[in-house]
Design brief:
Layout (H helix, E strand, L loop, with lengths): L4 H10 L6 E4 L6 H12 L4 E5 L16 H12 L9 E5 L5 H13 L4 E6 L2 H5 L10 E4 L5 H6 L4 H8 L7 H17 L3 H10 L2 H17 L10 H13 L7 H4 L5 H13 L3 E5 L17 E5 L2 H4 L21
Helix pairs in contact: 1-2, 9-10, 11-13
Length: 330
């Protein structure tokens, strides 16, 4: 699938003083697929993937010490492949499982700078809080679900997508209507790659909804990993409240009546760290850049994907599809 994020990977690859790259993002936004595709197309398939979730025992490679030469040598044995540090791409997937592997990125930068090394994972911030993070020795990029442009490109509407990048002009009513129809589809399907891929191959909205339900279940199951920091029920309440109140200012006391303001605040902060939600701070138009006047106390919030929002509207329940208008794509 075509992703704009690939352009960022190209920029990283061509940077003279390139550092190991960490890709952050919520679950299932396409991190692994995009890196794999990038390796196939830009490294002629010379990509070596170390999946720590699939092979948790491989984390032991990083326990003895963080010497890059030794690590590469042992990984070659495990992968049954030769890693050419000058031409190949090494990919550490689900790196949150291997905290020492994150720490090793510093030494790869300092002692093996020629190596193209990408790491990706979800819930990375929770792991980073427990280790000595290699500040200044890595580059970091954040990945999100597909935007509307990418949705159009990946559902066979290339020409409509190109219009979005052109200089604004008045469109005919027919073209404008086509764009609105596509936007309505996007608002229900969203930008999670699995949902977009299923839609373009089947045109079955019912099947897309099933995938969205599964994805929301995955996010909620991950709440158990937050348990040392917050109550799972407060996380559920906060997520549901954000989904119901898109466009409204967030007040901690309003996230849940069952929990105190500080507890609700902690839940929101954890959801933000996990990139399940994004904070949109208030800023003054009288001063540029906007970041200089951004408020930490006054903000709104968005859920990770517009298509998943409807699946989070009820606590622990499936979205009520029967209440949606039969002509919702008209």
């Amino acid at each position: 699938m075509e992703r704009l994020f690939t352009l960022k990977l190209k920029d990283w690859e061509s940077t003279p003083k390139r550092k190991p790259l960490i890709i952050r993002g919520a679950r299932q936004v396409g991190k692994s697929y995009t890196v794999q595709d990038f390796g196939k197309t830009h490294f002629n398939g010379r990509i070596h993937t170390v999946d720590f979730e699939k092979h948790p025992e491989w984390t032991g490679v990083f326990e003895k010490n963080l010497d890059p030469v030794r690590i590469i040598s042992e990984l070659e044995l495990l992968l049954n492949a030769t890693i050419n540090t000058a031409t190949d791409l090494l990919f550490f997937d689900e790196i949150q499982v291997a905290p020492k592997a994150i720490m090793s990125l510093r030494y790869f930068h300092e002692e093996m700078p020629e190596l193209h090394l990408i790491a990706a994972g979800s819930l990375l911030e929770f792991t980073m809080q427990k280790i000595s993070f290699p500040v200044g020795r890595v580059s970091i990029l954040n990945m999100t679900p597909m935007n509307f442009y990418e949705f159009l490109k990946n559902t066979g509407k290339d020409k409509l997508a190109d219009i979005l990048l052109e200089k604004p002009v008045r469109l005919s009513d027919t073209i404008h209507s086509s764009l609105l129809d596509a936007l309505r589809q996007y608002m229900y399907i969203g930008g999670m790659p699995e949902c977009v891929d299923l839609w373009r191959n089947s045109n079955s909205m019912t099947e897309v909804f099933k995938i969205q339900n599964d994805l929301m279940d995955t996010y909620r199951q991950d709440f158990s990993k937050y348990s040392p920091y917050s109550d799972k029920r407060s996380l559920n309440h906060a997520l549901n409240s954000i989904a119901r109140n898109i466009g409204h200012q967030v007040k901690y006391s309003g996230l849940s009546e069952e929990f105190t303001g500080p507890t609700n605040k902690k839940a929101l902060e954890l959801l933000s760290l996990a990139r399940v939600i994004t904070r949109i701070s208030s800023a003054s138009v009288a001063s540029l850049p906007f970041e200089s006047t951004a408020s930490e106390k006054k903000f709104k919030a968005l859920i990770v994907d517009i298509g998943l929002r409807k699946m989070a509207l009820e606590d622990g329940k499936r979205a009520r599809l029967v209440t949606w208008p039969a002509n919702f794509l008209a």
